[in-house]
Amino acid sequence: MSEKKEVSRRSFIQATAAGASTLALGISQRVLGANDEVILGMIGTGGRGQSLLKRLTRVPHVRVAALCDLREERVNQAGQIFEDAKKYIQFEELLEKEKLDGCIVATEVGNHAKCVIPVLESGLHCFSEKPMDCTVEKVDAIVKAARQAKGIYQVGFQRRYAPAFVDGIGQIHAGIIGDVTIMQGHWHWPWQVGGWVADVDMSGGEIVEQACHHMDVMSWVKQGKPPVKCVAVGHITRPNPGSNEHNSEDQSAVTFLWDDGTIFSYTHMFYLADHFQSEQLVVHGKKGGVDLREGMFYPREGQGEAKRIAEKVPDWEYGTLEELIAFADHIRKGEKSRSNQETGRVSTLMSLMARKAMYERETKTFDPKVVTWEDLGSTT
Predict the structure, then answer these.
(1) Residue at 124 is within a domain
(2) pLDDT tens readout for residues 68-120
(3) Distance CA 263, CA 231 (A)
(4) Cα separations (Å) of 4 from 44, 111, 183?
(5) Would residue 149 count as lying in a domain?
(6) Alpha-carbon span 108 to 196, nearest angstrom
(7) 37, 87, 125, 336: which could form a disulfide with 102 (CB 3.0–4.6 Å)?
């Protein structure tokens, strides 16, 4: 590995993305059999990247051949998981030198497009962590690149591959609760967020970086149909939030409305007392309701008995291993992911819709208002 360089994370991506965009396009993809080894690269080997690498050791017939991060110590840490992987600081060098089937992008959210688009343009399959990015313009750019790409693009909304959610939402789509009327959710954590996650320009804020998971679930319930309106409020409660790089809300409340009258009411809170840590996703209809985390159906009075329709969700990371296994299988079979640029677009834009409704980027102030889907200005 080259001598360690003192480079900021932002300048690293800016410096390397320009070179990556000049790589040769249309690299031919290998034809893989059902049990052939899938060879991957990893761009971004921080906390999330290393978490994915550990899970990849449990995915059959997958090898990570190359690792990339601007911080040499992080690449070396990741190299302890896949010891034979080559190490890079510049990701365009990785794309140029390595013979891969695909790449996983696990950088900060605000750098996803800068990495994902060159990966797709180089002819490789791409798995990118959620959400797609943190601005409408960059989401649109990824969508356009993915639609034109030869490779598969998969977004890391792992609940799409979690059996409990697949079964529970499958039952909703089959009509167990009748027409959906209102959806409820919350995600409450005692953590105090910091670093790039607390920087709206790099993460989109917590309503984008984390709550996008629940936006994705409810978009899935609505079969990809986007809401027409959103109103949201949020504020910062953690100590010493004054830095411009620590401007993300840690408590927020959001309500979405669909054109058929369906409502999604949601709260997302960090920096709480430990006692209140919890997660809930409930979908109500004219015949009853489904608690997706508990895997239970509860009928309205006089309309039957409560019953289990799916397993209980064991933890919030549930589905991550399954989505990585699926990514490798999608590559072998040449099939589209169920968490792709079209589903990911709606889920990410819902999060950005909530962001726009609660926060004014130009003035960096929390300014609640009603936002429509058209107000986002998406061109895809």
Answers:
(1) yes
(2) 998 999 999 999 999 999 999 999 999 999 999 999 999 999 999 999 999 99
(3) 11
(4) 16, 21, 50
(5) no
(6) 7
(7) 125
Which of helix, strand or coil describes residue 150? Answer: coil
CATH code of residue 231: 3.30.360.10
The token pair at 23 is 């790589």
Q: Which CA distances in Å does 357 have to 63, 231, 347, 353, 365?
A: 43, 6, 16, 6, 11
Residues 220, 362 within the same domain = yes
| 3 occurs within a structural domain | no
Residues 218 and 355 in one domain: yes
Does residue 118 have a cis bond before it (omega within 30 degrees)? no
Residues 227 and 303 in one domain: yes
Q: Give the Cα separation of 270 and 191 in Å (integer).
A: 6
Asked whether the whole model's pTM tops 0.85, one would answer yes
**Is residue 143, in this structure, part of any structural domain at all?**
no
CA atoms within 13 A on the CB side of 278: 9
- Rounded to whole angstroms, the Cα distance separating 95 from 86 reads 12
Q: Can you tell me whether residue 31 is helix, strand or coil?
A: coil
Strand 296-299 relative to strand 288-291: parallel, antiparallel, unpaired? antiparallel
**Exposure string (b/e) for 58-97, b if CB count within 10 Å is 16 or more?**
ebeebbbbbbbbbbeebbebbbebbeebbbbbbbbbbbee
Please tell me the total count of domains within the chain: 2
pLDDT above 50: residue 3: no
Residue 177: name the closest of 59, 291, 329, 23 by CA: 291
pLDDT in tens, 162-200: 999 999 999 999 999 999 999 999 999 998 777 888 888
- The answer on 303 and 170 residing in a single domain is yes
Q: Are residues 98 and 214 in the same domain?
A: no
Inter-residue contact 114 to 13 (CB < 8 Å): yes
> How many whole angstroms separate alpha carbon 378 and alpha carbon 27?
30
Residues 227 and 278 in one domain: yes
Cβ–Cβ < 8 Å for 184, 285: no
Give the CATH number for residue 123: 3.40.50.720
